[in-house]
Specification:
This protein is mainly beta. It has a domain of 44 residues: Pemi-like Protein 1, Chain: D, CATH 2.10.260. Helix content is 9%, strand content 34%. The chain is built from one helix and four strands; from the N terminus they run ββαββ. The strands form two sheets. Strands 1-2 form a two-stranded antiparallel sheet. Strands 3-4 form a two-stranded antiparallel ribbon. The two termini are 26 Å apart. 2% of the residues are buried.
């Protein structure tokens, strides 16, 4: 998912390790801004410059 804006998003996020899983707490306002929510998947990829790229895959809506 690409952000539809002209500004870059940069923020601090709290990192917590629980067992073998590391959680990154992102502000609900930021998640709302990028239209992500419960049930969505986040993919994190390390870039060649050492930064991380975050991609959101939105949950597919179930049709009835």
């Amino acid at each position: 998912m690409e952000l539809q804006r002209n500004r870059l998003l940069r923020m601090r996020a709290k990192v917590v390790k629980l067992g073998n899983t590391v959680y990154v707490h992102i502000s609900p306002l930021i998640l709302e801004d990028i239209k992500a929510g419960p049930g969505d998947w986040a993919y994190i990829e390390e870039q060649t410059d050492g930064t991380l790229k975050l991609e959101i895959e939105r949950k597919k809506e179930e049709t009835q």
